[in-house]
Amino acid sequence: MSAPLEEALPPAVPAHVRRVVLALVAVLAVVGPVSTALSPTLIVEAPLLLVALSAVNRHIVLAAAHVDPVPLLLVGSARRMLSLLATYGLGYLYGAAALSWAEARHPRVARLVRWCEDWLQRVGPALLVVMSSYTLMGLAGAARMRLRTFLLASGLGNLIYVAAVVWLGDAVSAWSRPLLAWLARHLVEATVICIALVLAQQLWRRRRGASGITPPTDLSPPAP
Length: 224
Prior knowledge:
Layout: H1 15-37, H2 39-45, H3 47-53, H4 57-63, H5 69-94, H6 96-105, H7 110-123, H8 126-130, H9 134-142, H10 147-171, H11 173-185, H12 187-209
Helix pairs in contact: 1-5, 1-12, 2-3, 2-11, 2-12, 3-4, 3-5, 4-10, 5-9, 5-10, 7-9
């Protein structure tokens, strides 16, 4: 992990690896917004299913009010691990080009990305245990960290992270239960509003994506 990310890239990525990674990303890109749009209904009637579809913090925290900690931890960790793995895969495919593209789209996070890159090179896989963030997973992929090493380090860090979120959800369950009861009384209205918000967000992202910043398409490493 001591060499710069650009120098760590091998000459090519097998075609089947690209297909698997991009298929996983595509599935998650569809499942995430759909589950969020239906989240008021799912969190009331099938909270564990909602977490299985989208293990974001708010879903886990709310689900903790009605789901036992062990199954919630297992399902939440497995689902979130899929997203971490997809992020690692994107970094693995696109390498430093993806980081440059992301920084161009989000200049405010450029400093954070470079800070994470620096510490990942210093500390190595141990940082994935301490700091389970998507930025680090993408950097680990760009640096071509071994998959086995990535799975062990990120898996442990992810388990600790989700356990903390489950604990938080249980701690605030006295406040989240009244919210869930309110949602149960206004299930249709809340779901319709949530669907409208998700559709508006997706439309806004599409328009922003057409702003002139082109995503990287060259999967080969940069020229030396």
